[in-house]
Design brief:
This protein has 218 residues and is α+β, with helices and mostly antiparallel strands. The protein has 4 helices and 9 strands, in the order H-E-H-E-E-E-E-E-E-H-E-E-H. Helix 1 packs antiparallel against helix 4. It is globular and about 40 Å long. The two termini are 47 Å apart.
């Protein structure tokens, strides 16, 4: 099927259907890093493990914790062009060994802030979170300036730390197209059918109108 000869209304409907279908097919859920199968995330803020996010839910699973100094996990993530991170949810398997764990975010491919706090002004945001934050969104705390619009395309780095015993954590990064409001869409084929029916109805109405005879007054 080609768009040649189609009415403008039908062309618009077909284009919308194709775009909706592409967005729906590209969005997915995937595990971008799991320490149990892919090894330990970097323990250095200057060389964080690089991760690439894609449309859909991107899961990161790890563990951190060591009494005293505390083990630190660092990873950077790239939000692709034309996409936005709309939430960073704490997964159900996350837990803390004390009263809270620590997480911070800095723009760019590194975390240059020292564990002592030197350079803390370079962070976009940070917080101490407890078990009560499971299932909640950390993005407003980590990137307050983007709490309403979502995190735009670019590279960002995350620092996670637990000073108690070793505990697991999991984060879900939800990525959506930056130009599309993240609302539920009808199934692509249902949308296509609606567009085709609307277009056909318009075409038939136009054809019938042109075929009707014209009468002049007596």
């Amino acid at each position: 099927m080609t768009l040649v000869g189609m009415s403008p209304v039908l062309k618009t409907a077909m284009t919308a259907c194709v775009l909706a279908g592409c967005l729906a097919s590209n969005a997915h859920a995937s595990v971008v890093w799991d320490e149990t199968t892919q090894g330990d995330l970097s323990n250095s803020g200057l060389t964080p493990t690089p991760l690439l996010l894609s449309l859909g839910i991107n899961t990161v699973r790890g563990s951190t914790g060591n009494a005293g100094d505390g083990e630190r996990d660092y990873f950077s993530f790239t939000v692709p062009t034309g996409a936005t991170v709309t939430s960073i949810l704490v997964r159900p398997e996350s837990s803390v060994s004390g009263s809270s764990s620590f997480v911070a975010m800095q723009a760019g491919p590194q975390v240059t802030v020292m564990p002592t706090g030197v350079g803390i002004e370079n962070l976009m945001g940070f917080l101490h979170y407890g078990n009560d934050r499971v299932g909640t969104d950390l993005l407003p705390d980590l990137a307050f300036a983007y709490r309403d619009t979502g995190l735009p395309s670019g590279i960002y780095s995350l620092w996670i730390q637990e000073t108690g015993g070793v505990v697991p954590y999991g984060l879900d990064f939800e990525v959506t197209p930056s130009s599309v409001t993240p609302v539920p869409l009808p199934a692509p084929f249902a949308l296509l059918a609606c567009g085709l029916l609307a277009g056909v109805a318009c075409v038939r109405r136009g054809s019938l109108s042109s075929a009707m005879p014209t009468y002049s007054g007596a």
